[in-house]
Amino acid sequence: MNKLKELDRKLIQATQAGLPIVKAPYASVAVEIGTTEADVIDRFGRLVERGIVRRIAAAPNHYALGMTANGMTVWDIDDGLASQKGREVGALDFVSHCYLRPRVLPEWPFNLFAMVHGRNRGEVESKRSEIAQLLGETCRKSDVLYSTRILKKTGLRLSQNGD
Amino acid sequence: MTRSAARSNITLDDVDATVINLLQDGFPLVPRPFALAGEQIGLSEVELIERVRRLREAGMLTRFGPFFDAAAMGGAFCLCAMAVPVDRFEEVATKVNAHHEVAHNYERAHRLNMWFVLATLTPEKIEAVAHEIELETGLHVLRLPKLEEFFIGFKVAA
User: Fold this and answer.
1) What is the dihedral of CA B136, B140, B145, B150, to 10 degrees?
2) In this structure, is residue B157 part of a structural domain?
3) A93 in contact with chain B, both atoms CB, cutoff 8 A
4) What is the pLDDT of residues B100-122, one digit of tens each?
5) Which of B73, B115, B129 best probes binding to A when mutated, by most A CB atoms within 10 angstroms?
6) What's the ipTM?
């Protein structure tokens, strides 16, 4: 990936904590970094195309919304079907994150991860059953790991320089 | 349906749920994005701005803005897991958390009871930090980097 242009970097640094919640947020950012509204919109568009910005959106706080149980459900899916099944599981409304990861045998036989949120563990379990039903016989084994404590949580921050 | 959200005095109504779901899917890149987004759910620009401000202030939204892919900017991430003996758990947590590359760390109910994410500037650095943690703790660190991601987003029941 090319090094980011100076103004792109300024744009990222000015917005990594969030966009201003005002009628013309891109114009407001433009004033802050010394460019025009059209340039900010154009730069964001190109950053989205390059995959550097995944999307401009809001992230819900599951805990504050009453979804206090979170279970990391994990599944052992045949490699040939894993991408297709991952898309199907990721599309479920109650799945917030869904990833394919490598197995580490023999300690870790699972390759598909789906984070499921619910008001309690019973709700997470019933959602886990829905995933199991969707996967059917393509799933050889599954488990669910509940988080019991946050040991560390820091925001992910950009480094100050681009390289 | 109306329900009280945990740890908050605000009450979430159906419109809030619609707003949260709409904004999770993406926010328009146009000069007046709240006007355009509001149209889709029958809210005026001012009404949507007020809702989003209130949801953000009440902590119902943790973030509102661009989501960056650190990997695309040259950074690297890796989910790691360890099976930590119960009597060493606090000691190992302290050692792991001392690395500033550890972005978050969760205790989970499983034989593999410690799950953390490494965030570094380069993929090589991931391996170096994971190896250091192994040397410091004498425990194996499972490396589970993301191979593929499927994002759709979580929907709030209205």
Assistant:
1) -120
2) no
3) yes
4) 999 889 999 999 999 999 988 88
5) B73
6) 0.76
